[in-house]
């Protein structure tokens, strides 16, 4: 019985962790759109805007990667099941 509860809670945790992958996608899309608008207003600042945008997207993408790693750990190598 306890094993089923742990597995059910893990499945809910996997779902919640994968929802965290939506945020970086939305944020990166918004950042790229704003960067394109900034470059359109000031084309001479393209290199600074582009490098800042790429750095911000890399930091945002790390959040999605962390949630993917947590989901895979809970799915395939669940450490909580061994505690029962």
List the helices and strands and how they pair.
Blueprint: H1 2-19, H2 22-41, H3 46-76
Strand content: under 5%
What's the alpha carbon Rg, rounded to whole Å? Answer: 19 Å
Stretches where pLDDT is under 50 for at least 5 consecutive residues are none
Order of helices and strands: HHH
Number of helices in the DSSP assignment: 3
Instruction: Give the tally of β-strands.
Output: 0
What's the story with the biggest beta sheet?
none
Helix content: over 70%
CATH topology: F1FO ATP Synthase
Count of discrete structural domains: 1
For this structure, what is the CATH class? Mainly Alpha
Description:
Helix content is 82%, strand content 0%. The protein has 84 residues and is mainly alpha-helical. It has one domain: Up-down Bundle (F1FO ATP Synthase), CATH 1.20.20.10.
């Amino acid at each position: 019985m306890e094993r089923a509860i742990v597995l059910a809670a893990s499945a809910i945790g996997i779902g919640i962790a994968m929802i965290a992958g939506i945020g970086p996608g939305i944020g990166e899309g918004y950042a790229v759109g704003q960067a394109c608008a900034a470059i359109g207003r000031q084309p001479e600042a393209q290199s600074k805007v582009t490098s800042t945008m790429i750095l911000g997207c890399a930091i945002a993408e790390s959040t999605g990667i962390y949630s993917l790693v947590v989901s895979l750990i809970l799915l395939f190598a669940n450490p909580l099941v061994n505690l029962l």
